[in-house]
Each structure stands twice: as structure tokens, then as C-alpha cells.
């Protein structure tokens, strides 16, 4: 990794709903530049930075969609197009790693079925390249545990990984760390989220991961479902998915920093409406504890209903990615959770 | 400073309402030990740790109160008493500095009238001793600005200062950093606090500092008021103090990390009821911004009404003090604000 002045050069792994949202939000930040993005079939990259809005507008195959969009743009686009490497390949992660010298940070916005999928990609990346900063928005406890176990090899590669850094876990778990400060004993952390999306097709992977939390379902079963089977399931529930006792890594990330003694003190659930953009409930973190005066009370962190899942997941992820750059600059390598630091503000 | 294993050895500067609350809360933490406390007339210290509950129960003169309480205790107290240094002195800060080798951290819970009072004490301390970690709960913008200016001499002394680390600024400003992550542009941060205290005599200094924010008052005028004059003022307002456009350092601390461009985007106000312990309004931080989708929305952080000012100010201060120990352990010296890091949980 060469030392680099100027905007942080960011690559995005994954070009689904969250990956494209990451591209779009990075495009709105002057402190970051979208240097590369890949899906399962190919990569689009440019050391000068990609047109983030164009990337965010692609549906389906990333490389094909990129070529079509650039081909369809007026003459002004041609000069830029010559500096962009857009190609299908069998190993997009490998292709991205070949660009590692021109990258500062990587946002991992891939679906994570099975649990080891993203941890294995991180392991491969830190083995192949040193000095990179990664952020993921993993949700499941087991997946985050696997990430935390990578600490020795991440340290050895002088890299930094921030794990579980979306909304939940992410902002809401960090808010619980703040809330905990007022109490002598924390009894319970309750996270109750609401997500509304107009059509589930845009967030196939996210919804499939949520279905895995339903009673009678598993990660494996959800991964094996066809789109038609998911349509049928949603038809039965009128488009609503209500989830309780979710295996969400807020538990281990809060236990790790001492907010709770046991993962059982953390409860995560919520309601997703897959047919309307309006949130069915307000996303709220409620921490209940006992004060020094022996009083029971609750602090709350409530997200505005007009904010989307993409804004609440990717915004924090980029803030944690910047924190990761700070950690690296201070020689602090390894795997860290969202509950260990404040994310930094990316302008 | 010698390296020390075991509980963090903490001294408290100040033995008013907040200083005694600090003693009491430190007494409830196994990771901290109250090694010393002083007021303007003397110091009480013990390398083995003071009886925090006894200290918290003293009213009036600290040393006299301590001697009376120990004298009044049964035989079991005598052995401890012999190891406690409780004495009146002309320069309690100097007396505490002589104990610096046996201290890890210092909670500054002194009243801060005039603005330069606490910054000058910190300056004196870091000049006299190296490797200490300080936390303050300063509120005024000007006072925090003075603290931040001490960065070079704090760094030179290999010390760490965490400034503005109570409730506001403190937890609520840090919550604003979290909330900001979801937005492309932050428009406004509104902090509206409620405090209820049964009798203002217990928090004379805090209330005097609040009166300085009232229209027509100043820091100097509030400092010069007699208790009778304050009683008279509170009589006219039925015990309520409603404050708006407060000069609170949340503004510079949020600007410093890029949450806002200008201090004018941060508004701090609130209502204090000096006659009832119930909060007249719920303390709430509201951050309003514009998302990537162009939607205006607000995230909120709301403190439970049953939590006291002492719990919400001193709890976070101790969490930031632990963060300061972490910073020092990693060779990161200097002055930091509450918006730069998450406080750590102190068990």
C-alpha cells in the first residue's frame, strides 16, 4: 500500500441494492472516490474514479450494464470511458486485489450466505494484500464471530477490519454503548427496526437473509429458495415480515465491550414491509438499566422514519471505514466492532 | 507515572454535587478506585482507596466532614483511617499533584467560573506531572476552546485530556455524531434538556453556571451573586430556569469533527426545575438532515426521565476517562473532545 493524499480510494464488493447505494453515497462525498466495484461476474474500475451515479443506476449485470450506459452516453463520456476497466471475469475479487495498490478501503456489500462467505473473502484479501481497510455490514452473530477470529491474520497483514458496521449492528449498537454510560447495571438492550421497501426485487439478498430468521427457516433453506418461493411466502404475509429473537451480532458486539454480561440481554427484531416504502414501525434502540440511585430507566435512540435502510446502513459503514483509516494511520491493526469506536464523519 | 495493574486509580478535583456523585459512582465500579478527592480547603487521599460512600455523604467542608465521619465510625474504621491522609491545606491541587505517581486519572468536577479556571488548572497539572489522564465536564464553548488550545503542552507531557465529556456536551454530542452518519447534509442539531433537582443548594455551582446563560446575565455577574440573590431570582420564576441559545460547546465539538459547518447549526437549551426532582421535559438530542434521497428527517436520542443529571454527567465522564487510558496506552496524547471517540464501559 502506497501512502496516498487526497480522497480515500474506495472499492465496493457487491453491486446489489446495498452495493449500488454505497456507490451512490460515495459519489456524494468529496472525501471519497469510487475506484472500483464488482459483482459476481465482473469488475468496473478506474484509478480516476468512476461515475458513481451511473454505477448506481445499473440494473442486472454490472459490466454489461456499465458498457451499455457508457455506450449510450454522449461524446463527453468517451474520454472517461477509455480510462475505465470494465470486464467480465471468473474471479472479480482476484481482479480487485490486483488493484490493491490503488485502493485505501473496501466496502463489503455482498450477501452473506453461508455465514463463512464474507469472512473467507476477507481472509483471502488480507492474505493477498496488506494495509487495506475493510468495513462490512454483517448482521448475524455467527458471521461476526468468524470475522473477529480473523484478528491475528488481519494484524499480521497490517490491515484493519471494522465489522458489523451498518444500522443493526452498527449505529444502534454504538448508541447502546453511549446509553449504557448513565447506568450502574444494564438490564436489556432492545432493538426494534422497521424497514419499508417498495419492491423486494431491489434487495433480494437482504430479504433472503431476513427470511432465514423466520421460525422454521435457516440460512441454508433461505439460500435455496427460488424467487417464486419468496414471492409466495410474501403473498401469504401480505408483504410483511415480522422477525423476533433475531440472531443479530449486536449481542456479541455489546458483550465484547461490557455493555451486557450475556448475549441474552440483547433482543433484536423488527418488521419489514416489502411492498411499501413507508416504515411499518420506527427503528428504535432502547437500553434499560438501573442508575446509581437504584432507579430503572431507559434511554432511546430513534431513527427518522424518512431515512431508508440504505442510508442507515451505508452511511455508518462509510463513517466506520474512515475510522478504520484513522486506526491504520495510528498503527492500530486488527478486527474491531462497531461498539469500539465512533464512526467518523465523511464529508 | 509508573505502569499500574488493577483498578484505575482515580482522583476527583472538586467535592460539590458533581464531585460527590463522582465519588459515589466510582465506588460502584470494580475497575476504578477513588484514590483522592479535594475541595478548595483540603484533600483526602489513600493509596488503598477511599470509602466512596462515606465521601459522597459528606456535606460542607470535605476534610472536616471526613474526620467527623471517620471519628464517628466504629472500631473497624480505625485501621483504614490511619492509612488515609486527610488534611486542610492552602493548595489542594498542589497536594494532589504530589500524589501523581499513585494516580492514573483525574476527574475535574470543579465549578468553572471564570472560563479559564479549569483550563489553567489542567495547564498547571500537565506541566507538573506527566502521563496522567484527565476528563472534564465543561459546558461552555469558550472554556472548551481554551482546553483544546492546550493540546501542544498536553502532548508534550504525554498526557491525555478528554474535554466536554458530560451529558451536553458529552453523550448527546456523541449521539449526534452517530445520527449524522445517515445524512448527506446535516441541517441542525437541537439539544433540549430537562433537569429536576429537589433543592438547588446541592448543586450551587451548576445552577450558578446556568444562570450565567440567562438574558442579561454573564459569567461574571452570576459568579458575583449571593445565595440570597439566587434564591430571589428563583422565587420570581417559581423555581424554573428556562434557557435558550446557550453557549454550549456542543457547537465547536460537532464542528470540529465535521458534523456541522458552523456553530450556529447547533442549538442548546433546556429547562431546570430547582424545586422538584422530576424532569420538566425529557432531555433529547434531535439531529435533522437531508438523506441521499433528498428527504428531510430527524434522528433522536432521548434520555430516560428517571436518570439524574449526576448519572448522565458523571457516568459518561468515567467512560471517557477509561477511553483516555486507552488512548494513552496506545501512545495517543493530547486534548480530545467527546465527539471524537466512544466512551468505554466501566464495570
Distance between the termini of chain A: 24 Å
The major pleated sheet of chain A works out as:
8 strands, mixed
Which strands sit side by side, in order, in the main sheet of chain A?
4-3-2-1-5-6-7-13
Our Rg estimate of chain A from Cα atoms comes to 20 Å
> What structural class results from the helix and strand content of chain A?
alpha/beta
- Give the helix tally of chain A: 14
Report low-confidence residues of chain A grouped into runs of 5 or more. Answer: 74-81
- SSE string of chain A, helix = H, strand = E? EHEEHHHEHEHEHHEHEHHHEHEEEHE
Regarding CATH, which class of the largest domain in chain A? Alpha Beta
Count of the separate structural domains of chain A: 2
Q: What does this protein look like?
A:
Two copies of one chain form a homodimer. With 347 residues, chain A is of the alpha/beta class. The first copy, chain A, folds into two domains: 8-167 and 310-337, NAD(P)-binding Rossmann-like Domain (Rossmann fold, 3-Layer(aba) Sandwich); 171-302, no CATH class. Chain A contains 14 helices and 13 strands. Chain A has helices spanning 17-27, 52-56, 62-72, 76-81, 92-97, 117-128, 141-148, 151-156, 171-180, 204-211, 219-224, 227-236, 250-256, 309-329; strands at 8-13, 32-38, 42-45, 85-88, 105-108, 133-136, 160-163, 185-196, 240-243, 266-273, 284-290, 296-302, 334-337. An eight-stranded mixed sheet of chain A has the order 4-3-2-1-5-6-7-13, sandwiched between helices. In chain A, α1 crosses α14. Residues 74-81 of chain A have low confidence and may be disordered. Chains A and B meet through α1, α9, β12 and α14 of A and α1, α9, β12 and α14 of B.
Amino acid at each position: 500500500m502506497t501512502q496516498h493524499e487526497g480522497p480515500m480510494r474506495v472499492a465496493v464488493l457487491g453491486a446489489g441494492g446495498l452495493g449500488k447505494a454505497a456507490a451512490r453515497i460515495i459519489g456524494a462525498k468529496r472525501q471519497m472516490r469510487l475506484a472500483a466495484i464488482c459483482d459476481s461476474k465482473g469488475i468496473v474500475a478506474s484509478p480516476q474514479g468512476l461515475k458513481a451515479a451511473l454505477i448506481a443506476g445499473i440494473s442486472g449485470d454490472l459490466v454489461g450494464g456499465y458498457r451499455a450506459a457508457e455506450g449510450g452516453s454522449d461524446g463527453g463520456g468517451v474520454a472517461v470511458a477509455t480510462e475505465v476497466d470494465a470486464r467480465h471475469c471468473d474471479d472479480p475479487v482476484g481482479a480487485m486485489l490486483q488493484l490493491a495498490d490503488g485502493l485505501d478501503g473496501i466496502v463489503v456489500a455482498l450477501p452473506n450466505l453461508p455465514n463463512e462467505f464474507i469472512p473467507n473473502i476477507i481472509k483471502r484479501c488480507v492474505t493477498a494484500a496488506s494495509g487495506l481497510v475493510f468495513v462490512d455490514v454483517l448482521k448475524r452473530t455467527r458471521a461476526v464471530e468468524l470475522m473477529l477470529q480473523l484478528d491475528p491474520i488481519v494484524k499480521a497483514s497490517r490491515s484493519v477490519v471494522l465489522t458489523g458496521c451498518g444500522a443493526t449492528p452498527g449505529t444502534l449498537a454504538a448508541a447502546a454503548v453511549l446509553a449504557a454510560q448513565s447506568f450502574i447495571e444494564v438490564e436489556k438492550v432492545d432493538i426494534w427496526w422497521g424497514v419499508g421497501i417498495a419492491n423486494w426485487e431491489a434487495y433480494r439478498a437482504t430479504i433472503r437473509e431476513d427470511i432465514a430468521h423466520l421460525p422454521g427457516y435457516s440460512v441454508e433453506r433461505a439460500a435455496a429458495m427460488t424467487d417464486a418461493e419468496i414471492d409466495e411466502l410474501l403473498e401469504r404475509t401480505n408483504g410483511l415480515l415480522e422477525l423476533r429473537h433475531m440472531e443479530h451480532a449486536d449481542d456479541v458486539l455489546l458483550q465484547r465491550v461490557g455493555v451486557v454480561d450475556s448475549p441474552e440481554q440483547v433482543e433484536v427484531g423488527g418488521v419489514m414491509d416489502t411492498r411499501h416504502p413507508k416504515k411499518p414501525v420506527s427503528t428504535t434502540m432502547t437500553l434499560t438499566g438501573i442508575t446509581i440511585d437504584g432507579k430503572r430507566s431507559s434511554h432511546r435512540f430513534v431513527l427518522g422514519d424518512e431515512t431508508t435502510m440504505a442510508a442507515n446502513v451505508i452511511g455508518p459503514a462509510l463513517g466506520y471505514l474512515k475510522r478504520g483509516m484513522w486506526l491504520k494511520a495510528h498503527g492500530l491493526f486488527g478486527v474491531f466492532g462497531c461498539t469500539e469506536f465512533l464512526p467518523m464523519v465523511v464529508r
